[in-house]
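Input:
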Amino acid sequence: MWILPLLVIGLAAGLAVPLGRAMARALDRPADNALERAFDTGPQSWKGYCLALLAFNAVAFVIGFGLLATQHLLPLNPDGKTALAPTTIFNTAASFLTNTNLQHYSGEVHLSYFSQLFFIAWKQFVTPAIGLGALLAVIRGLRGDKHLGNFTLDVWRGVAYVFLPLSLIVGLLLILGGVPMTLEGAVEVTTLEGAKQTISRGPVAAIVAIKQLGTNGGGFFGANSAHPFENPSAWTNLLECVCILLVPMACVVMFGRMVRGNGQATVIFNVMMAFLVAFTVWAIVTDTMSPNPGLSGLPLDQSSGNLEGKELRFGPSAGATWAAATTVTSNGSVNCMHDSLNPLAGLTPLSGMWINCAFGGVGVGLINFLVYLIVAVFLAGLMVGRTPEYLGKKVEAREVKLAMLALLVHPLLILIPTGIASVSKWGTDATNNPGPHGLSEMLYEFTSASANNGSGFEGLGDTVGTAEDAANPEKAESNGRAVVWDLATGLVMLIGRFVPIIAPIALAASLAAKKPTPFTAGTLRTDTLTFALVLVGTIVLVGALLFLPVAALGPIAEHLSFTTN
Amino acid sequence: MSTSARKASRAQSLFAPDLLKAAAGRAVIMLRPDHLWKNPVMFVVEVGTALSILYTVVKAVNPDSTQATLGYLVALDFWLVATVLFANFAEALAEARGKAQADALRKTKQATPAFRRDSGGVFRETVSTDLTEGDFVAVEAGQVIPADGEIVEGVAAVDESAITGESAPVIREAGGDRSGVTGGTRVLSDRIVVRVTVKQGESFLDRMIALVEGAKRQRTPNEIALSIVLAAFTLIFLIVTATLYPLALYAEGYTGNVGLGTDIPTLVALLVCLIPTTIGALLSAIGIAGMDRALRANIIAKSGKAVEVAGDVDTLLLDKTGTITMGNRRATRFVPFGESSASDVGRLATLASVADETPEGKSVVELFRKMPGVNLSSVDATAGATFVPFAAQTRMSGIDRRDGPSIRKGATDAVTKYAQAAGGTLPSGLKEQVDAVASQGATPLLVCEGNRVAGMIVLEDILKPNIRERFERLRKMGLRTVMVTGDNPLTAKSIAAQAGVDDYIAEATPEAKLAYIRKEQAAGKLVAMMGDGTNDAPALAQADVGVAMNSGTQAAKEAGNMVDLDSDPTKLIEVVEVGKQLLMTRGALTTFSVANDVAKYFAIVPALFAGTLPQLKTLDFMNLTSPTSAILSAVIFNALVIPCLIPVALKGVTYRPVGADALLRRNLLVWGLGGVVAPFVGIKLIDLILTLVRAV
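Output:
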C-alpha cells in the first residue's frame, strides 16, 4: 500500500534534481544560436514581460477559440465530429489557455483529432512553458537582475528544451506500455455476445505524455487516466504519476541554482514535500484504509478500503496517491473518481488546490509559494526586530500590497462563486446529490477552476457539448445551467491564472530595483528549520484556514452525517 | 532629581488613574466613524456592530425576525461595542501618556522676561513670546533663557534639568561646539548674550511637544506595510463570513432546520473574531509608545520613522572618548630609566605638571599622590620657578627651576631631541621600551631633568567597565561597531582590539567620518552615529540615524534626526533597541492575532450550525455549553484580549540580543504557539464562567 506512493515521490524527487539543474543551465543564459536570437526580442522590464505574456495569451486564446469553433471544417476528423456549443468553446478555450484543462466536454465524443493535436496538445506544450517563463522572470527579479529576461525566448526554450524532449521519452515509454498512437478513426467491433461496440482510439500517447508532464491534466478520453487506453497498467500508472510531480519539483531545484541559494531551495522543497506527504497520507488513511461509509451495514468485505470509482489494476492506493499528487500540483488528471472518494479523503484534493503551492503548476506553483514566503518573511522579519528582507532585499509596502493581491484572488474566486451557486438554481440543480455532497461538488468545481487545476469532482451537470446539443429543446433546462457553469468557471480560470502571475512579477521587479542589504547576525535567515515552520504556519493559517467553514459544511459535514447517524 | 529618579517617576505615572480616566473619556469620543475609518480593521468592527444593533432593534420589535434570543443579541452588541471601545482606549491611553509628558515639558515654556538688544545696542526688557529669529538677548545668572539660540558672547553654567532631568549644571560658551542653549533652561552663573535661532512656535521645545503629543504622528513605512496586510486579511475574512450566509441558507434548505448560520449578528460576531482586531486595535498605540519609549530614554526622535529605522541599523559609529573609554587618557604608571626610581620619575613628572591644567597633566599629579610612601612636600618646592606651558611647536611642557635643572615632559621625539641638544645621552633600551608601550595602544611621555632622560609616563585610555560585553551584545544583534578616534592608527588599533570593536577610524576628521558613512551606505548598510559639533553636521545628516547631543551646537541638532537630552554617547545602543522593540511588538501581536483564529473557528463554526447540522458538534473540541455561549465566549475573549495586551503594546515585547534565529524561535513559541493555545483556554474559561453566571 505504501510502496506506490514511496516509489512515486522518491522517483520524482530523485529525477527532479538533475532535471532542475539542467533546466537552470538551459533556460538561464543569453541567446546563443540563430533560432534563439530570432525569438529574443531583447531584455524586458516587468511591464514589457507582462505585456508580451498577455499579448501572446490573447492571440493564443483567439486562435484556440477559432480552431475549436471550426473543427467540423478542418481535416483529421475521421469520426466526423461536429461543431461545439459556443459556451463549451469559450470554457475550453479559457481552460486550455490557463493550463487548467477543466473539461466541460468529453474528448472521444466531442473533439476531432485535429482539435486534439493542434488545439489541446499545442496548448499543453505552450501553457506550461508560459508558466515556466513567468517563474524565470520572478526568479531573475528576486536575484536582482535589472531585466527580467525575454518572454518569447523563455517560452521557446521551455517548449524546445524541456517539454518536447521529456514528452518524446515519456510518449515512447507509454507506447511501449500499450497506449495507442494512431490517426485512424474509431473501430467498430462485434463483441463475444454479438453486440456492436465502437472503440475510440487516436493519437493518445502524445497527448497523455504532455498532459502529465506539463501539469495540464486534460485527457484524450473523458475518463482521463482511468481509461485503459490512457493508462493501461500499473507500470504506466507509476510512470504517469511520477510525471505529474517531475517538472514542478525540478522548478524548485532550478530556483536554488539560479539564485545561488541551494539552502533556500531546500527549505522550499522540504516544506512543499511536507504538504505533499501529509495530503497523500491523509488520502490513503481515509480512503484506502477506511471503508466506504455509504456501504456500511451491508454484507460486504470492506477490508480493502473504499473501492468505489477506483481502477484496481493500478493497486489499492493508486487512486489516493494520484488524487494527492494531481491536486497539489495543478495537474488535474485523474485515475479514479474523486466524487467517490470517502468524504474526508475528499479533503486531500480540495486542500491541495486551496493552498495551490505544494510544488503546484509548472512555474506558477513556485510563484504562489514565493508569495506565501513573502508574507511569512514579513511577519517573521518584524518578529526579529528588523524591516523584513528576502534574499537581501527589503520587503516594504509595495511588495506586501502585491503579495496580498496575489493571495486574495484565489480564495475570493472560490468562495464568492460557490456562495452564489449554493443559493442559485443553476448551482443546486446541477448537482447530483443534494446536501453536503452537492456543496462539495460545487466547491470543488470552482476550487479546481481557480487553482487552474482542472480535475473534476464530477457529478455536476456542467456540459453543454455540441452545437446540436445546445439547440436541443429537450435539454434546454440543463443546458441553461451548464451555460452558467461554462461562463462562470471560464472567467474564474482566466482571473485565477493571470492576476497571480502578474502581481508576483511586479513584486519581483520591485525587489530587484532595491539596493541589496548585507547579511548580519540580526538578519532573518530564510534557510533554517525555524523559517520552514514559519512557512508551514503561514500557509496553513493564511491559505487553508480561510476554507475551514466550507470544509466543515461540505466534506466534514458529510462524513459526520455518516458517523453520527 | 537624578535622571533615574525622574525616569522612575515618569514610569509610575504611566498607568496613573487620571491618565486612565482621560483615556476612557476619549475612547468614547473616538467612536466617531470619521475618526475610525483610518483604521480599516476597527472600522469594519464598528460597521458590523451598528448592523448587529440594528438587527437587535428589529428583534425587539418583531420577535420572529430571528432564531436568536433578545438577551443573546443584547449581550453580543454589548461586547462588540466593548471591542471598539477597548481599541480606542488603547490608542487614547498611549496619546494621554504622550500628552502628560508634553504638559510637563510645556510648563517650562511659559512667557518669561527677556532682554532684547534694540537697534541702539541697548538691552530692553520684553517677553519671550515676542522674540523672533535673529534677535540678540542677554541672560544673567538666575534668569531663564527665553528662546533656543546660540551663545555669541560669554560663558555660563546652565541648569538644563527642565529638559534633561539631569541636575548637574553644564557649561555653555560662545564659539566651539558647546554654544547651543535651549529655551526654558536657567543660567546659574555669569552673563551670556544669545542669538535667537528659531522663529516663535518652532522652537525645539515646541517641536518636541508636538511630537510627543502625537499630533504630527505620521505612519511609518513598516506600519503602512503592516496596515496593508491587516486590511487584506480583513477583506478575506469579510468574504469568508459573507459567503457563509448563502452556504448556511443552502444547508437550511436541505435539512429544513434554521440555525444561527443565517443570523446576521452572529455572522458579525464571527467576522469580528476572525479579522485581526487585536493588532488592529493596538497598532497606533504601539507606534505612539515607540516614540514614548525613546523619550523615556531621554531621546527626542524627530519622527517615528527615525525610531523605526534605528532597528534596522547595521553599523554604529561610536566616539572613542566617552563611549568606549572613560573620558581622557590618564597616567597609569611611571617607568624609570637608569638609576632613577619610579617615585623619582613621578616626582619630576609632577613638578613638570603642577601648572598643567589639561586632564592628562592632572592625572599625572593624581597618580603620584596615590603612590605609596611619596613625600608630597618634595613637589611643593616650586617657588620662584617659571612654568613652561605646552606649545604645539615644542610639544613639551615643564618648569624652569632656580635651584635645580629644568624639567620637561612631552612627546618622545621632542624630549629626546631636547636632551641631546643639551648634551645628554639617551639611556639604553629607551627606544624599545617606548615602542613597547606605544604598540599596546598607550601613549608614552618622556620626562627629563636637565639633559638626563629620567623616565617615562605611560598614559592609557581606561575602557569603560563591561564595554567588551556590550559590544559582544551588539554583535549578536547583528551590528558592526566602529570606533571613531583622533588617535594615531597604532593606538587606535590597540584600543579597538581591547574594546572588541569591529573596526576603527583613526585620526578621524569630519570628512573621514562622512566618507566612512558613505562607504558603508554604498554597501547597503544603514549607519547610526552620534555627534555634537558643527563639523559633525554633514555626517549626522548623511547617517541614517544621526543622534545629536543636546549639549551640541544648533547645527548638529538640526542635522540629526534625534536629539539625546542626556548627551550620553552610549545612547546609540538604546536607540537601536527601542527601534527593534517597536518592530518586534508589531510582528508578535500580528502573529498572535492571526493564530487566535484557529480556536475561534472551532468555537464558532460548530455553534453556527448547531441547529442545522448537529453532527458538526464533533468539531467542538472545547465542548462548550451551548451555541450562544460558545459565540459569546469567543467574542468576549476577542474583546478582553485587547486591554490585556495594552501593557505589551505600550512597553514593547522584551528584546534580547541573542541573534535573529533565537529571537524568532522565542517569539514564535510565545506569540505563535501561545496565540494558538491561549484562546482555547480563554474561551473555555469564559464559557464556564458564563454557564456559572446563568446557573446562579
